[in-house]
Design brief:
- By secondary structure, the protein is mainly beta.
- The protein has a single domain, classed as 2-Layer Sandwich (Alpha-Beta Plaits).
- The strands form two sheets. Strands 1-2-5-6 form a four-stranded antiparallel beta sheet.
- A hairpin with a 2-residue loop joins strand 5 and strand 6.
- The longest helix has 5 residues.
- It is globular.
């Protein structure tokens, strides 16, 4: 299942993003919904419960923060094809020298 959403990147620029749910990997634990900072204390959740997997309910409220992707224990979520541990680099850190301690 694919949910299209509008989110804000780390640098604050708005752009179209997509949360991808691999239904074969999803175990239905709903951890992504619990972790989402936009669902806490709101009347209108970002995610809706479906028959098996979550889907984005309110695309405009999604920040594309990757919290749901990082928290997915079954590695079923991706954002625009980016999966957890694939070396996402914050755009602010690009073209900077690394500090070695």
């Amino acid at each position: 299942m694919r949910s299209t959403l509008t989110g804000r990147r780390w640098d604050g620029m708005a752009e179209e993003r997509s949360i991808l749910v691999d239904e074969a990997r999803c175990i239905g634990c709903w951890e992504c919904v619990e972790l989402c900072p936009q669902t806490r204390g709101t009347q209108f959740p970002v995610f809706e419960r479906g028959e098996r997997v979550p889907r984005v309910a309110n695309p405009r409220s999604c920040l594309a923060c990757l919290t749901c992707v990082e928290g997915c224990r079954s590695l079923a979520l991706a954002i625009d094809g980016l999966r957890r541990w694939e070396g996402y680099v914050d755009p602010r850190a690009r073209n900077k020298e690394a500090a070695i301690f």
